[in-house]
Structures are given as structure tokens and as C-alpha cells.
Amino acid sequence: MFFIKNMLFKSKPKFNKPNATESSSFTFATEMAQMNIQLQETFRMLPDFVSRELTNKVTFGVYYLSNLVDSELLNKEILNRLIEIEELLSPEKLVDLLPIGQLLLDDNWNHMQQYILQGWTYIHISGYKYGILVNTAKQRERALTKPENESQILGPQIAFTENLETNLALIHQYLPNPDLSEIAINMGENTQNNIRVVYLRNRADLEMVTHILNTIQALDLESLLDATVLAQWMEDNPNSAFPQTITTERVDRAIFPLLEGKVVIVVSGSPNVIICPTTFLDFFKSIEDYYYRWTVGLFLRGLRVLGIMISLFATAVYVAALTFHYETIPQAFLVPLAQSRARVPFPPLIEALMLETIIQLLGEAGARLPSKVGQTMGIVGGIVIGQAAVQAGFTSNILIIIVALSALSSFTTPVFAMSNTIRIIRFSIIISAGIIGGLGITMSIAFLILHLLRQSSVGQPYFYPPYTIENKNKRDGLVRMPFSSAPKRSVFANTEENNPKGSSDIDE
């Protein structure tokens, strides 16, 4: 009995809780020996922690994590210089002797602990209840590359990386404007992420910037692994299927919104930045539209909107026409349509849902496989399954064409998050069309418009500017205008007619 119980219910592993989970917190000690004991106790679970005492005529305590520091910088600029000092100095005077950019005097044990965990080195001088923190962190980052998920033919071909400093440097490189402002926020008890809210002080609405800052600071997150996670926490309506901010890896896509008066949020450790506020139509604009002549940009944007319409409604119209509205089918199509569906045992709704599910499965499997294998599997799988389904009488040729066209059209939107939303919404429209026909499609459209009108992005209207086009600054929506007629700023920016709003404290 006990054997069966032990086999079914595996006992939990035992941990020495006091040693494995508890963190130590002390106060700074003046004596070097006491500081050694306390630091050894604090970092006892990290084998790479190094505690050294440098003694020539004066003794300095040096503490760091060897796997996080730049060993060349540490040896050349800290250890070699400390060993040459022949008289006892105060921490304030020692700061002037070390040729390193970032040094801090600190007497807070938790701060010191966090900085050491980020690659900083702590220097302690006996007799003082505080010490010096020196930034010796080794930067580990990949080289700048082309955007992999947002490819374009024209325009800059450079993407953000996971390094916060590199991403901010790229923004400053493209936008060397003295009004470019940054506000630093620290978030994540476990991950200790640095966040920068970037905006142009002379263009952004300061009231809007204040709202974004308050939203981020109100979050109490233990961990933050990527900017996409922060974007979800910032959403005004997290239950909506529609994304309410844009995340991008393209540098030029982040620069354009800044010039329009929007806000860009950079998160350490993430190759994506957040653009907010965002309107529904922003998801269908590509920065490449502005690199082409306006006629080409207008055509491409129109083609993109047509693709979204096909993706949302093509299959639903097929289901509604075959189920409720036979009279709407042109006579020339009746015979081939009847022949195509002659062997199909399922009603149009089941047939369409089955094919849509297969298409989504193929897409999801192709995305998870290695790139070369994924493309091959997607093409081969689609052809083989499609032919087999038609020969077996599970579906009709015409529906396969419509479903494939709908799936292809859903990826014409430049923002991948919106294409995923369209894939989900398409199912609900198909079901409503299969239950009550054209009335279901009409009700779905009405519901979507009402839902979009009720949404907001960081406090700003989401379905904007379609329902109110009052002046020139609100023209850049579905239509790509010539530069001479296009708005110079976003609808959310402060314009010349609109005096700056919000608190001036944000500039401090």
C-alpha cells in the first residue's frame, strides 16, 4: 500500500530553506573583517563571488561577481590603481582617482547588493560606513542586424537589440534633438529592468506622457522579461482581442512616432520597443508607405485594407451564401459550385470551420519549426492535405481557394499582433454567418465598430481619427496623402493651436 502510494505521489524534494531561499540583509560595518563576513554571507549561494583584500600600505576590500565584470577593466583601472595608493583616502577622494565614468557612493546594503548582481564592483575602505560602487559590468550583446520580423525593401535596415544603452543610442543617432527627453523607471523585483520613456518635449502632449508614466509606475511587477509583456499590462482593456499598443524592432518605425508627438518605451533586455498611444489604423500603416511615392504608398495601403476585408469576410460570405442566400450566387457559378460540393457530407459552416482550423494548424506548426523546415512543411502540408481532403470528399475546391486566400490576406498587415487578432475574429464572423446568414455578418460588423469605438490606448481614443476628421492634422488614416497635404504631427501631439497641457514637473 505504501509502495503504491509512494509510486503515485512522489514526495517533494527537501530543501535547506534557510540556506537556499532566504536573502541576507545587513548594515554597513566600518571594520573590513566584519564587511567580509557579511558579504560572504550575502553571496554565499553564488560561487563566482570574489572577495579580495588589496594591501600595500593601505588595505582596500574589493568585491564583485567574476562572471559579470569586465576583467580587463577591473584589473587595469581598479586593482592596479588601488595597489599603487600609499596613503589612507576617504571614499570621496578615492572617487577622484579612479578613471571610470560611473561611480557611486552608497551606504544602502540592498542597493549595493543589487548593483553587484548587475556586474558592479564594490570597494570598501576600513573605517567608513559606506563605500564606492564602480560600474565594471561587461556588456554582452549581439551585433546590430537587419529586422527579421518586419522586413522592408526601402528605408534603414537596422533593428533594436536586447541592450538598453544600444537602443537609446540608436534613437539619439537618428534623432539628435535637444528636446528628446528620457524618463528612467526601474521595474521588476526579480529582473530589475530599466525602462526609459522617450518623447520629444516640444511635440508630445505632456498630459499624455504623465498618464503613461503613472500607468507604468502603478504596476507592481515581480518580473518583466520583454516589452511585449509590459505592453499588455499597460492596455486599458486587457480583455479586448485588439492590441492597444504597437511593439516594433525597427528603429525607423520608432522614430516616426516620436516626430509625430507620440511616446516610445524602451525596456532593457527586449529587442522591441513600445509605441503609444496607438490608433486602430496605425496597425495597417507601414513606414515603407512613406518611402515610396505617394501614389505607390496609396495603392499598397489600399491593397492592405482590401486584404484585411478578404481575410475577415470572404469565408463568412461563402458560408452565408450557401446556407441562407442561394439567390445571391451568380448563375454561372451554380453548376461548378454544385459539382464541387456534391460529395461533401458536411454543411458549409462545419466545412469552413474544419478547413480554417487546418490552415491555422499548418501556420502554427510552420512557425514553431526551424525556418527552412517550417516553410517546406507548410507548403507540402497544405498541398497534400488540400488534395487529399478534396479527393476524400471532405471539402470543396472552391472553399480551399477562399480559405487559402483569407489566410494569406490576414498577413498583409504590417503588425503581426493585429494579424493574429484578425485570425481569431474571423472564426466568430464565420460562425455568425453560418447561424443567421448575412444578418450575422452585419451584426458582427456593427459589434466590431461599437467595440472599437469604446476602446482607448493609454487614455486616448483607439478608433481615431475615422469618426472625427476636423482638420488637416487628422488626415493620415486609410489614405496615404502626399507630403504637402499630410499632417505634420499625430492627432495626439500638441499642435501650434493647442497649448501645451499637463504638468511641467515632468520635465524635471
UniProtKB/TrEMBL annotation:
One of its GO terms (biological process) is spore germination. Pfam families: GerA (PF03323). Residues 492-502 have a biased composition (Polar residues). It comes from the Bacteria. The keyword DNA damage does not apply. Keywords: Membrane, Plasmid, Transmembrane, Transmembrane helix. One of its GO terms (cellular component) is membrane. InterPro entries: Spore_Ger, UPF0353/GerABKA_families. The keyword tRNA-binding does not apply. Residues 489-508 are annotated as: Disordered. The chain crosses the membrane at residues 303-326, 398-417, 429-453. PANTHER family: LEUCINE ZIPPER PROTEIN 4, SPORE GERMINATION PROTEIN. Belongs to the GerABKA family. This is Spore germination protein.
